[in-house]
Structure formats: C-alpha cells, structure tokens
C-alpha cells in the first residue's frame, strides 16, 4: 500500500514516526543516512575548464599557432620585430577570452540574486516541540507545520488540514489551486493525490501539519531536476556557424600561407625569411579582431536587452532567438497577467460583463446578495505590506473580494459565526455571518455542487422558485462561460432572523448568480503574437491548464485563428507515435494542454526533428527539461523556479512574452550585423594579403609589415567594426521570415563583395600608393630595400594610411549591402562616429609621432600622397554605389516580373 492510500496512523507507522515528531537523535541519524534536503546542483565545469574553453576554440588555436611561429622566428632571426607580433596576438586571445568569460560570469552572479524558490526555514516538530529549522535539515519522518504563503519544502503526506489549497504550477504547470486534505486516497498515482504536498509547490490558503516522506533528490522536484541534468546541451546555431566560419577562414589562410612557402622556396628565398612572410600572410588572412568584436557586439546586444527586461545567460543565445522558427510558450504569467479577475456574471438569468456593472448601481443593488457572498465567503488574510492593507491568499478569492468592494459601498464587516471550509469532496465553501437583520449563510463553489442545494433564485431584487427551466438556463450559461475559458463559481445564500443555536444547514438555499473569472492576457501580448506571425515565427501554447481555458486565451490573443484548432492533451499525446506527433505539428493551429514534464520535452524534440529552431518558455520545475532540450530556453525571472533558470539560456525579468519579441528583433539584427562587420574586416584582410602575394609573384618589397597589419586589425578598425556589430534593429527585420538554416555568415555573395570587389579596390589603392612613394624616392624595380630604410618606412606608412582611410569610407558603405550611402547616412550610430575619430587619432599617432614610429616601424609619408589616398576613397565609394544601384535595379525587375 502506498503512503497516500494509508490512514494517518498507518502513514506515521510506515516511517517510524509519531504525531509529536522525531527525536533529535533519530533525526540526526536519518540526516546522515539520507543526506540534506537539497537537490544536488548540476555538476558545473571547473573554473579552469570554462576559462580554457574561451581560450582554445578553433579560431583561437590558429592565433596561438601564429604567435608560436612568430616567437620561433624571433628566436631564429632576432631584430625582425616578430616578438612584437607574437605578444600582440597573445594579447588579442587573452583579452577576448577574458572579456567573454567575465560577461558570462557576471550574468551568473545576477542569476544567483534571483534564486527564491524554497523557504529557508520551516517550523518542525522535534522532541514534542515546534522549532524553526533550515529546510536542508528535514528528514523522512519529520512533522512540518505549513501555512498559507509558504512553499512546501519536501514531499509530504498531510496528517491534519484546515482549508488547504495548493498551487502546483511549478510541478504540473496547472495554475488553478487544488484543495488538499488529510483523508486517505484510493488513487493509484500518489503525486496527484489530495493528501500529498509536493516540494516546490506553494500553499495559497489554509494551514496544515504534514509528514515528510521524501527529501532532496528523492522528491518529485528532485527527479525532474535530475531529468534536466541528464538532458544534453544544445549547441546554438551561432556557435555552429562561427565554428564553420573559423574553419573556412583558417583553411584559406593556411592554404595561402603554405602555398606562399612553396613558391618562395622555388624562388630561392631563405627558409626563415620565408617563414616570416608566411606568418605575415596568416596574420593578414585571419581576422584577429573578429573574436573580440563579436564578443563586444554580443555584450552590447545583451545589455540593450537587459534594459528591456531580458537577461542573457549565454551570449550566443541573442542570435539564436533571432533565428527561431517556433516558440513554445507557457500560458500562466507569460501570456497572462498571473492574476484572476472577474469577467462575466450571471445575475438572475442574464449574463452581464463586469465592465458594465460600474455604471449600473441599480443592477448592483438588485443583486446585493451575490456581492455580499463574494465579500464574505473566503479564507483570505489581510495584512500590511509596505504600510498598505493587502489581501493574501488564493488569487481567485482576492478577485472576488476586490470585485465586491469596488461595486458595493464599504460597510463594517459582518461577524463570522460559522464556517464550512472548502474541500475536494464538497467542492464548495460556506460561511455563516451575523448581521443586524439576523444570520445569513453564504455559499460559494462549483455550480454542480451548489445548484442542487438551491430551491429558489434571486432575480430582479426578489426571490422566486427555481424551476427546471431556470435550472436549464443556468447550466446553459455556465457552459457558455466555460467554453470562453472562464473559471465559473456559483453563489447562494440563506437568511434567518434568529442568530444562535444550531448552524444553518446547507439546504433550501437561494441561488443568486454565477461569476466567471479569468487570468486576463497581458495587454501587449496580442500585438507581440501578431508580430511573431508576421515575422514567420510560429507560436505554440504548451500548458498544464484545462483545454477550454487554453483555447479561449489562444483565440483572444490571436494565437488561434481557425474555427476548429487541434487541441491535444497529455493523455492524447501519450498515445501518439513519434511520426504521428510530427504530422500533428503540421496543423495550422495547435494547442497542447494538461501536459506532464517529459511530454513538453517530447514536443520540443519533435519540432527539432522537423527541423525547427525551437525556443521554449517556462517557469516551473516541470519546464526545465524542455528548456534545456530546446535551442534556446527562456525562463521567467519573477515566477520561475531555480531549476528552470539554471536550465535556461535567457531569463525574462518581467515574465512578459512581449519581451521575447524584442529579443527576436535584436537577434535578427545581430546576424546581419555580424555579416556587416565580417565584410568590413575581410576587405582590409585582402588589402593586407595582396602585398605579400606581390612580393612572391612579382618581387616587390612587402608594402605592409605584419605589425602594421595587426595595428589595423586590433587598433584602428576595432571600434568601427564594433559599431557595425551594434547597429540597432530596424522594423524591417520583423517583417521577414526567419533566416534559413543554410544561410551562412560567409556565403558566396559576401565573399565576392568583400574579397573580389571592395577588397581588390582597397588592395589596388594600397599598392599604387606604396609604389608611388617608392618611385618618387628613386626606387627601381628589382631593388629590395633594407627594413629600416627611411624611404621604405615612408612607403609602408603610406600603405597603412591608405588602408585606414579607405576603411573609414568602407564602414559607411558596409552599413547596408543594398541601400545607398545617401539612404543610410553618416549619422545614427555613435560607435561608428567614435570609431572614425579613433581611427584618425591612431593614424596620426602611428604615422606622425616618434612613439608610433618606433613601435610600428613607420615614418611620416610625404604630404602629396594624401591626394592619391582621397582620390581612391572617392573612387571606392562611387564604384560601390554603382554596384548597389545595379542590385536594386535587378531586385525591382524581379518584383515586377513576379
């Protein structure tokens, strides 16, 4: 026999406990045997491993290899400046990795401040007396004392109950409070039995004594947490794409560097000089600034989202949500306001919206008994919160009392002289109050239990017999309200002039109406759902609530538009095979209700197999496995459990679905921004590479030294590239479908534009300027100047200045691959403006100061060379504008043809 099927005495005996509780010695022995009442945290990576992961990604390994070669070259051929290059590359790796690690650590610290799930202390009976103990010290066999407002610290069996109702949403996902009592149950499943309290749920009303029978990992809470920890981590699309990009660029760089070494050896160039130039090619081809710039772009995006109540735990999650094709969302608190309010009332035999009553005092007066019953029939406690009287308890009862107080003038509260508390068998609550007119019994409960007790109906200000026709009308009204997703309660009363003696029986009552309550949707959610639909993102409600409630809300917020949506409950889902579930997910409108924890994860896995990029919202322990299985898990910051937050990639601090839309827009903009600054970076990579190819193929002196190339990658171009990565999302981003999973950061179009168009223009300009300075200084073809020759220093500096100036032009060209510079403008992005000013300052510092000359091997170029540089800047912008015009013209013709 299971514990929920036992009597109280049998349950105590099965755990070798007693009504007075355990003794301290026995409790200490059990604590040593069963361990503390805490769910073992998921094993986290060590500090060293997490830090190493930031420093030894594939992209970083290429840079480590380049720095090692630079140090080897310096050891073999001192004085070539290769040590500077090696130290600079190492600094790039360290700064980028440390910054990314610090950001995620800071987010974890913020998350730690949100952890408020289980009570820290609980009254426990030990040695026959009640003492407050930390919840970690609870053991099986303990007797705990629980009151309204507390969270349940362990799985317990009730042994004494007074009007207890429990919110089980954190475990079951169902928001409606459930009545609990101490009577033995005949159900087979213990975890939904009326005498069981599950760890992590909260008591909304009543008080109880309960027997602890499971603690820590043995609780239902702990089992779901372990399920979460065994679910594999999902690699974000951005991480996969960056890995693909890193491999592609790295292999290109290594192939060109290796090819250069082969060609140079055939030309008779000494090995160590050949190696130095090969390192230069790797430095030129690998965009060292990509990692720190990407990290900074992700950080800036996460900070913008934090100001909009979205906390990003893992930086790539920003872009992942931007590529999401499906959002599986919980209902309570995410789509709704997580509070009950009265929506519709049946007064007499007529339905009235709540909003109409405030303007009809006559109607309110004629139905005064209903509002008196709503005000009197509850188990709420009124206390001061921040100096203001506040009702605490069941949100449904709070809504009823607030309705009554808002419609009826405040009166002195009637004295309660009797009470029949709500329980799961009676499904109703009655109170007897004393008034100046005598005694009144008020009854509130489920219509199917209250209506049979009624002999009359109060309508039009007077009572009359309740005949069969009136009963049929009441039941029809109840059905209409239920179909709308409302929680329906019936109210009745009975009056006697004499107060005292035996309590009034619950019979021969006067029916006074029905009240339909709802958890109203957040006002901004319908617009957010519309934006998701317009953006090609499918939103699927996955909830533990009743199907009627789920469908009614889905229809109200625009989530369901067809007249006959597909509604699948957990029981129906259990009967579907994997193939049948995937076919069911093709339905245009689908709602899942009454789901268990593993079923939500099954839906996520089915969507991933279709394949979709899946985002999942949730707040309960039951949501955690699905949060971890999804491409991006979104937990609730206010109502979310600690387990859900740990499993999620991002957290909604305001529990608001509309905040997800802001994050989607930010994520979509981020992918485009990465492509923008990737284009920008690859353009100057070509300009840095071509001088080495010209040296190998044509015997020209190298027009740009490796240290000068690094000064561009990690100095002058850093802030402007970051500015491109921080472009704000535009409204057009949410009017397009999610990007295809086949869409690459570095695709053919981007490569052609960066490498073979803008890159070649910039490279041609750089080589032309270099040769112009060399020829003006008397250089002739075939001469190889010394590395410290003044003319050579001036020429390489002129090359550096050319690349920097053309990159200033390029940053404005890269703000859009299609729109004209006159459309995007020069303003609107303070980081780009600041980056341009920084580039100019660094250019002057490197080219015209002794400190810059000594560090970067430069010398002030002749002043006449600026005419060449600015001419190429205008030429580059003109050619790019012509290309953009051609693209726009082709798109226009395609739209007209289509």
Strand segment tally: 26
Alpha carbon gap, first and last residue: 72 Å
The general outline is: elongated
Q: Could you state the CATH homologous superfamily of the domain at 235-306 and 673-897?
A: Calcium-transporting ATPase, transmembrane domain
State the secondary-structure class: alpha+beta
Quickly list its features:
898 residues, alpha+beta, Calcium-transporting ATPase, transmembrane domain, Rossmann fold, nine-stranded mixed β-sheet, 33 helices, 26 strands, 50% helix, elongated
Topology summary:
Blueprint: H1 8-14, H2 24-34, H3 47-55, H4 58-76, H5 82-112, E1 121-126, E2 129-134, E3 143-147, E4 155-167, H6 169-172, E5 178-180, E6 196-197, E7 202-214, H7 220-230, H8 237-266, H9 271-285, H10 290-306, E8 310-312, H11 317-322, E9 326-329, E10 341-347, E11 350-353, H12 354-357, H13 361-366, H14 368-376, E12 381-385, E13 388-392, H15 395-407, E14 415-420, E15 428-435, E16 438-445, H16 447-450, E17 454-459, E18 462-465, H17 468-483, E19 487-496, E20 509-518, H18 525-534, E21 538-542, H19 547-556, E22 566-569, H20 570-574, H21 578-584, E23 590-593, H22 597-609, E24 614-618, H23 624-629, E25 632-636, H24 642-647, E26 650-652, H25 657-698, H26 706-716, H27 718-725, H28 748-776, H29 790-813, H30 821-824, H31 830-848, H32 850-856, H33 865-897
Parallel strand pairs: 9-21, 9-24, 17-20, 21-23, 22-23, 24-25, 25-26
Antiparallel strand pairs: 1-2, 1-3, 3-7, 4-5, 4-6, 4-7, 8-26, 10-11, 10-20, 12-13, 14-15, 15-16, 16-19, 17-18, 19-20
Helix pairs in contact: 3-5, 4-5, 4-9, 5-10, 5-26, 8-9, 8-25, 9-25, 10-25, 10-27, 14-15, 18-25, 25-27, 25-28, 25-29, 26-29, 27-31, 28-29, 28-33, 29-31, 29-33, 31-32
